[in-house]
Write a structure and sequence with these properties.
It is a multi-pass membrane protein. The protein has about 210 residues and is mainly alpha-helical. It has eleven helices and no strands. It is globular. The two termini are about 30 Å apart.
Length: about 210
């Protein structure tokens, strides 16, 4: 079951990439296919980051192992979307013209914020294996708390871009804020208690009466 679930998650994360590529190939991605890919990959990366962060609260609530076994996979997908997003920027926006990079960074400082987030995501992806876990010991957990910094940076990156219309951004920010609140110890304890209550059948109720 867990194996099937893992494969299903893999295919679900891969599907948008195939869908957007298909749109580009069919000339159905609008007048700027490069920008179409860039924006979709950016939002896809943010959604994957939020999904990755929702796995721990979901595990606490449902006590289902399936949520925790896909954490690394979703984290790696988040990083991959981020790297592809950067590749689209370099290829389609900058046109691989490295001499224009400096001017573009001063014109669009939000790119530096996105780059900082991506550096964190890449660092977390590289250290997400058992070997790094063993090598880093207690420091591993502290390092991986930087995922919250990455989320805050991505939200800032996005906010800077969409300043004029915050409708979509507010939804992501609310989801991110809620996920961060659920990590606070009292909320985490309450979730675990609720999870235990849901999964333990109460005495004297339903079929236990027989
Ligand atoms: C070096 C790293 C990065 C660069 C160079 C970069 C660059 C860009 C650029 C040029 C845009 C389009 C702005 C516009 O003209 O409308 C953009 C949008 C965006 N980026 Fe990034 N970004 C980076 C990292 C990230 C990361 C790591 C994420 C998320 C995981 C992310 C999420 C987004 C989002 C959500 C948008 C807005 C998409 C939309 O308006 O629909 N970016 N980024």
């Amino acid at each position: 079951m867990i194996r099937v679930w893992r494969v299903a998650v893999f295919l679900a994360a891969l599907a948008p990439l195939l869908w957007w590529s298909w749109h580009v190939a069919m000339a159905a991605a609008g007048p700027e296919p490069g920008r179409y890919l860039l924006l979709n990959l950016g939002q896809g990366g943010l959604i994957l980051l939020l999904l990755t962060l929702s796995l721990t609260p979901l595990t606490r609530l449902t006590r289902w192992k399936g949520f925790s076994v896909i954490r690394r996979q979703l984290g790696l997908w988040t990083c991959s979307y981020g790297v592809l997003h950067l590749s689209c920027y370099l290829l389609f926006i900058l046109g691989l013209d490295w001499s224009a990079l400096g001017a573009d960074l001063s014109r669009r400082p939000y790119i530096i914020v996105g780059a900082l987030a991506l550096i964190i995501l890449i660092t977390l992806a590289i250290t997400s294996n058992r070997f790094a876990m063993k090598r880093l010991g207690r420091r591993w957990k502290s390092l991986h708390r930087f995922v919250y910094v990455a989320l805050a940076l991505v939200l800032l990156h996005f906010l800077w871009i969409v300043r004029a219309d915050l409708t979509q951004w507010s939804g992501y920010a609310l989801a991110g804020g809620a996920l961060m609140l659920l990590r606070l110890p009292p909320a985490a304890r309450a979730l675990s208690r609720l999870g235990r209550r849901i999964s333990t059948p109460r005495k004297g109720s339903g079929h236990l009466e027989s």
